[in-house]
């Protein structure tokens, strides 16, 4: 058994709350790209964690909007992470090592990086399995802030969430506010890892999905 597969086997024995999502995704990426420089990627994840901790130390822990701004400043601003609008179907967009090299990726792969940084800062967060568009949410005591990691960390309003829900065929009777306000439709670490693994194994996506992301980005420009 290879070192990366052995690591994944060990990770699989952990409780959901004990899993380091960044490391888990890194080990998956090693399996998919055995010749890639995974150690450089690991050092980069460490740099992101240190950057998040530094920003967290300088702010009010209960200020969710400030946390969102800090993460966007770190990941989209300092390191240039964003969704790949031009070559969405490129398999590199689903491999965490390649994503750290290119600073471009699919929503779930980018979500892994954002969740890694937020958790390093000590901030509650979770993935939001929104129809056709993976998001993350920062958790407060009574509220949440929902972030579109594909679009450089844009904080989404209820109106924008509703538009995404309708575009993704979310169905009648489901409100964006309801999705954002509860954990009912959120994705835990295991669920995020499963989605990431699915994309890494075969990230071919339809032209309709790629066009949808491009359309949302153009509407927000």
Characteristic terms for this protein:
disordered C terminus, 10 helices, alpha+beta, 221 residues
Q: What is the total tally of β strands? A: 7
Low-pLDDT residue intervals, each spanning 5 or more residues: 171-193, 199-221
| Rg over CA atoms | 17 Å
**Mean pLDDT across residues:** 78
Q: How would you describe what is shown here?
A:
54% of the residues lie in helices and 12% in strands. It has helices at 3-11, 21-32, 38-56, 64-78, 96-102, 107-120, 158-167, 176-181, 189-201, 207-220, and strands spanning 82-83, 104-105, 125-130, 133-139, 144-148, 154-155, 186-187. Helix 5 (96-102) links the parallel strand 1 (82-83) and strand 2 (104-105). It is globular. The chain has 10 helices and 7 strands. It has 221 residues and is α+β, with helices and mostly antiparallel strands. The longest helix has 19 residues, at 38-56. Helix 1 (3-11) packs antiparallel against helix 2 and helix 6 packs antiparallel against helix 9. The model is unreliable at 171-193 and 199-221 (pLDDT under 50). The strands form 2 sheets. Strands 6-5-4-3-7 form a 5-stranded antiparallel β-sheet. The chain has one domain (3-220).
């Amino acid at each position: 058994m290879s070192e990366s597969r052995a690591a994944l086997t060990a990770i699989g024995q952990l409780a959901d709350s004990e899993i380091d999502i960044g490391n888990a995704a890194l080990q998956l990426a090693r399996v998919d790209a055995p010749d890639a420089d995974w150690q450089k990627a690991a050092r980069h994840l460490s740099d992101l964690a240190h950057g998040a901790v530094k920003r967290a130390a300088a702010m009010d822990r209960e200020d969710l909007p400030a946390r969102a701004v800090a993460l966007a400043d770190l990941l989209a601003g300092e390191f240039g992470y964003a969704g790949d609008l031009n070559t969405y179907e490129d398999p590199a967009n689903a491999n965490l090592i390649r994503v750290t090299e290119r600073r471009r990726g699919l929503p779930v792969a980018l979500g892994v990086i954002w969740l890694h940084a937020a958790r390093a800062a000590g901030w509650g967060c979770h993935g939001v399995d929104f129809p056709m568009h993976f998001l993350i949410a920062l958790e407060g005591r009574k509220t949440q802030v929902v972030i579109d990691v594909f679009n450089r960390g844009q904080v989404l309003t209820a109106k924008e969430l509703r538009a995404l829900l309708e575009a993704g065929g979310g169905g009648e009777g489901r409100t964006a506010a309801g999705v954002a306000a509860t954990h009912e439709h959120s994705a835990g670490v295991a669920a995020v890892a499963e989605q990431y693994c699915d994309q890494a194994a075969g990230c071919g996506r339809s032209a309709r999905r790629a066009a949808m992301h491009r359309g949302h980005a153009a509407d927000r420009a």
